[in-house]
Amino acid sequence: MHNKKLKYKFTSAILTIFLSISLLTACTLQTTNIASSNNTAITTSSKAKSGSTPTPQTDISVKYDSTDVDTGWDSESSTKITFSSDTINGQGEGIVISKNIVTITSAGTYIISGTINNGRIIVDTKDDQPVRLVLNGADITSTESAPICITSAKKAVLILPEGTKNNITDGKNYVFDNKEADEPDSAIFSKSDLTINGTGSLTINANYKNAITSKDELKIMSGNITLNSTGDGMKGRDFVAIKDGIVNINAKEDGIKSNNDEDAKKGFVLIEGGSINIIALEDGIQAETDILIKTAAINITSGGGYTNGETKADEQPGMGGPGRGFDFVPSDTAEADSTTRAPADTGVSGDSTATESESKKGLKAADSITIESGTLEIDSADDSIHSNNIICINGGTVSVSSGDDGIHADAAIYINNGDTNVLKAYEGIESANIIINNGNITVSSSDDGINVSGGADSSSTGGRAGQNSFNTSGSDSLQINGGYVYVDSQGDGLDANGSIYITNGTVVVNGPTGNNNGALDYDGAFKMTGGFLIAAGSSGMAQAPDTSSTQNSAMISFDQVMPAGTIINITSGDGKELLTFKPAKGFQTIVVNSPELKKGTTYDIYYGGSSSGSEKNGLSEGGTFSGGTKYESFTVTGLLTTIGTVGRSGPGGGPGGGQGFPGRRNN
């Protein structure tokens, strides 16, 4: 959408330097090295295509030792803790019982069963071995503090035996064990590394704040885990690693969070499998550094979904007017307006309350987000996938609906494979650099479809999203090197505050009907050396690939706006069909670039009629076109051949001209 570019288009040397440095820390293509059955080393490496965006190596490593995977236990040699209403009974060594609190003082295995109405388990040991808590049908409620609190241990492991059902519930008010630190603050709280394994179920009802917190590492190896939380669902300061299992989270703050901001090698979220369902009023998954999804079935609803976005993804203001000198939101009032874009991100804040400035993103990371495979479905009020640096989609199926940007990265977005579907968004895919190497990409947006904006929005610096300055850099670009790209936008289809390069692949654009936007919009170059492009849209701001290209383009403009669904056919004089395309919306301009568009060849343009071919996003494959009306003939004279006159519509909320047909020429 060009009015945004008019507001934000100025050069910021500081931001340019920042983005150049930040590109040195993220990933595109990923390799995984399995060191042993119990030790996984994950190495993420990247190589920029054609040297355009430097993205050297980033390493994320998680070790799973034998205590993480061991779910076995021996009843005879283990200490037993049995709850009964308001009493605690113990059998074995390593425990101290005082009223309604049992304190574990030694490493070992403890079998916990029964129901207690108001009681606690505290782990406090200096031993150099893990404490293993077997929740063997335990129902623990504490009305005044964390039901399970690990204050000191080498490591704590919660084991969920097969077939067991376990419940943990806390109260709305806590009496802190550590008043200076306001700790504990979660139903299960650990100051040590915490692992959960087994195939049984664990339900946590956290009425005070978080459901699970580890001040160090948090590993979910397996289990059926349900978290209902007034704060965050689960939080691991150093990292959260989910190996497998079923995780269901309903949180009034973030779903999953890692918040170590002191060590660049920590503060990440790693997901290697399982089924994860998150409903969060704030971010679905938030990482201080990186998010890496190896594979999983993930479903996230954040902030109430896209319909709760400040900018509704399915709303578009009335457009029109003469050209791009018109700002929909005047620049001198942009900061005062709170309804143009979705709420902004104010950073990590586990203690925040419900305000307009809360972040309500699906995935959010300060450094990188990498998706290797699996299925990911996100419905978010704010950006669905957001990184302050780089996003890499290497495979899997990603489907997002967003009240703001579908996929946003400040520095670069790489799509290397898989299916990426932006079902609804204000802007579909947005970054300073966007590189599509392969995959199937579909975008539906109420503003720009794929947008190279250059710079960061407010996600890292606070304030209303969209208010901060965007940098325009000559090196910022959209690169399409393969795959299939389909865009249906009410704003610009492909929009670059920089340049566009297409070397391969198929690109189909159903662009805007308003004349202050275009199906294609760029400030630098548009060089097309391979692939196929068809773009339909309004005529007022229509652009085509430029003469730096090595493939020929044709820009066809009609006398009036053609109705949605009108078939356009281009056939050479010898009867060879170049394309048959049915735009989804009213249009006045068609741009086509194809290796089959040959210099010196004459082509006939038809409209109307029908096609017997199979249709994908309006583009017919195979079959026969018949019954159309001839509009014009043209001969390709060079790299850009124009047919008709590109005009501008008059003022108003819609495109100029009626929904009629151009002057007809008989076959």
What does this structure look like?
With 667 residues, the protein is mainly beta. Among the domains are: 78-242, no CATH class; 505-643, no CATH class. The chain has a 47-stranded mixed sheet that branches. A four-stranded antiparallel sheet has the order 50-49-52-57, with no helix packed on it. A hairpin with a 4-residue loop joins strand 49 and strand 50. The longest helix is centred in the N-terminal third of the chain and has 10 residues, at 13-22. The protein is elongated.
Identify the notable features of this structure and list them briefly.
single chain; mainly beta; 47-stranded mixed sheet; 58 strands; disordered N terminus; disordered C terminus
Instruction: Give the total of beta strands.
Output: 58
Report low-confidence residues grouped into runs of 5 or more: 1-54, 316-356, 455-472, 647-667
The percent range for strand residues is 35-45%
Summarize the amount of helix as a percent range.
under 10%
Separation, N- and C-terminal Cα atoms: 39 Å
Mean pLDDT, to the nearest integer, reads 83
Count of DSSP H/I helices: 3
The main sheet comes to:
47 strands, mixed
Radius of gyration: 29 Å
Based on Cα principal axes, name the global outline.
Answer: elongated
Structural class: mainly beta
What are the SSEs and their pairings?
Elements: H1 2-8, H2 13-22, E1 30-36, E2 39-44, E3 58-62, H3 66-69, E4 79-85, E5 87-91, E6 95-98, E7 101-104, E8 108-116, E9 120-124, E10 131-142, E11 148-152, E12 156-160, E13 165-170, E14 186-190, E15 194-198, E16 201-206, E17 210-214, E18 217-220, E19 224-229, E20 234-236, E21 239-242, E22 246-251, E23 256-258, E24 268-271, E25 275-280, E26 285-287, E27 290-293, E28 297-302, E29 363-365, E30 368-371, E31 375-380, E32 385-387, E33 390-393, E34 397-402, E35 405-415, E36 419-424, E37 427-436, E38 440-445, E39 450-452, E40 477-480, E41 484-489, E42 494-496, E43 499-502, E44 506-510, E45 520-522, E46 526-528, E47 532-537, E48 553-562, E49 568-572, E50 577-581, E51 587-593, E52 602-607, E53 610-611, E54 614-616, E55 619-621, E56 625-626, E57 629-635, E58 640-643
Parallel strand pairs: 4-8, 7-9, 8-10, 9-11, 10-12, 10-13, 11-14, 12-15, 13-16, 14-17, 15-18, 16-19, 17-20, 18-21, 19-22, 20-23, 21-24, 22-25, 23-26, 24-27, 25-28, 26-29, 27-30, 28-31, 29-32, 30-33, 31-34, 32-35, 33-35, 34-36, 35-37, 36-38, 37-39, 37-40, 38-41, 39-42, 40-43, 41-44, 42-45, 43-46, ...
Antiparallel strand pairs: 1-2, 2-3, 4-5, 6-7, 47-51, 48-51, 49-50, 49-52, 52-57, 53-56, 54-55
